[in-house]
Amino acid sequence: MEEVDKKQKARAEITVNEKWCKKCGICIAFCPKGVFVADKFGKPIVKYPEQCIKCMLCVVRCPDFAVDVKKLDSE
Protein backbone atom coordinates (compact mmCIF):
# COMPACT_ATOMS: atom_id res chain seq x y z
CA MET A 1 0.00 0.00 0.00
CA GLU A 2 1.34 3.41 -0.88
CA GLU A 3 2.14 5.83 1.90
CA VAL A 4 -0.42 8.55 2.55
CA ASP A 5 0.49 12.20 3.06
CA LYS A 6 0.11 12.63 6.83
CA LYS A 7 -1.01 16.27 6.34
CA GLN A 8 -4.27 15.14 4.74
CA LYS A 9 -7.24 15.57 7.05
CA ALA A 10 -9.78 12.87 7.69
CA ARG A 11 -13.04 13.46 5.82
CA ALA A 12 -15.03 11.13 8.03
CA GLU A 13 -15.07 10.02 11.64
CA ILE A 14 -15.02 6.23 11.61
CA THR A 15 -15.65 4.30 14.80
CA VAL A 16 -15.77 0.60 15.60
CA ASN A 17 -17.77 -0.41 18.66
CA GLU A 18 -15.46 -2.90 20.35
CA LYS A 19 -18.30 -4.42 22.39
CA TRP A 20 -20.29 -5.29 19.28
CA CYS A 21 -17.44 -6.21 16.92
CA LYS A 22 -16.77 -9.96 16.59
CA LYS A 23 -13.65 -9.42 14.42
CA CYS A 24 -15.14 -11.04 11.32
CA GLY A 25 -13.02 -8.88 8.97
CA ILE A 26 -15.84 -7.94 6.62
CA CYS A 27 -15.19 -4.20 7.02
CA ILE A 28 -11.52 -4.77 6.19
CA ALA A 29 -12.32 -6.95 3.17
CA PHE A 30 -14.97 -4.68 1.63
CA CYS A 31 -13.28 -1.29 2.12
CA PRO A 32 -12.21 -0.20 -1.38
CA LYS A 33 -9.64 2.24 0.00
CA GLY A 34 -7.98 0.10 2.67
CA VAL A 35 -8.99 2.35 5.54
CA PHE A 36 -9.00 -0.56 7.99
CA VAL A 37 -6.22 -2.90 9.06
CA ALA A 38 -6.42 -5.79 11.50
CA ASP A 39 -4.47 -5.75 14.74
CA LYS A 40 -2.74 -8.94 15.93
CA PHE A 41 -6.04 -10.20 17.35
CA GLY A 42 -8.04 -9.51 14.18
CA LYS A 43 -9.74 -6.38 15.49
CA PRO A 44 -10.29 -3.74 12.79
CA ILE A 45 -8.30 -0.57 13.33
CA VAL A 46 -9.06 2.66 11.44
CA LYS A 47 -5.53 3.33 10.21
CA TYR A 48 -6.12 5.55 7.17
CA PRO A 49 -9.26 7.67 7.81
CA GLU A 50 -8.04 10.28 5.32
CA GLN A 51 -8.56 7.75 2.51
CA CYS A 52 -12.22 7.16 3.35
CA ILE A 53 -14.55 7.99 0.45
CA LYS A 54 -17.68 7.53 2.60
CA CYS A 55 -19.04 4.72 0.48
CA MET A 56 -20.53 3.22 3.66
CA LEU A 57 -19.77 -0.37 2.60
CA CYS A 58 -18.27 -1.04 6.03
CA VAL A 59 -21.47 0.15 7.71
CA VAL A 60 -23.82 -1.73 5.39
CA ARG A 61 -21.85 -4.99 5.43
CA CYS A 62 -21.15 -5.18 9.18
CA PRO A 63 -23.41 -7.95 10.53
CA ASP A 64 -23.19 -6.57 14.08
CA PHE A 65 -23.78 -2.86 13.36
CA ALA A 66 -20.41 -2.16 14.97
CA VAL A 67 -19.08 0.33 12.40
CA ASP A 68 -20.22 3.95 12.21
CA VAL A 69 -19.14 6.60 9.70
CA LYS A 70 -19.93 10.25 10.28
CA LYS A 71 -19.25 12.65 7.45
CA LEU A 72 -17.11 15.59 8.52
CA ASP A 73 -17.08 17.80 5.45
CA SER A 74 -20.06 19.20 3.64
CA GLU A 75 -20.48 18.28 0.00
Give an account of the 3D structure:
- The chain has 75 residues and is an alpha+beta fold.
- The chain has a single domain (12-71), classed as Alpha-Beta Plaits.
- The protein has 2 helices and 4 strands; from the N terminus they run βαββαβ.
- The strands form 2 sheets. The chain has a two-stranded antiparallel ribbon. A two-stranded antiparallel sheet has the order 2-3.
- Residues 1-6 have low confidence and may be disordered.
Helical coverage, percent range: 10-25%
Oligomer: single chain
From N to C, what is the helix and strand string? EHEEHE
Q: Please report which band the strand proportion falls in: under 5%, 5-15%, 15-25%, 25-35%, 35-45% or over 45%.
A: 15-25%
Query: Could you please say which CATH topology applies here?
Result: Alpha-Beta Plaits
Please state the overall shape, judged from the principal axes of the Cα atoms: globular
Strand order of the largest sheet: 1-4
Alpha plus pi helix count? 2
Corresponding CATH architecture: 2-Layer Sandwich
E-strand count:
4
CATH class call: Alpha Beta
Total discrete domains: 1
Q: Alpha-carbon distance between the termini?
A: 27 Å
Low-confidence stretches: 1-6
Query: Could you report the average pLDDT, rounded to the nearest whole number?
Result: 88
> Helices and strands: which structural class?
alpha+beta
Largest sheet: 2 strands, antiparallel
As a whole number of angstroms, the C-alpha radius of gyration is 12 Å
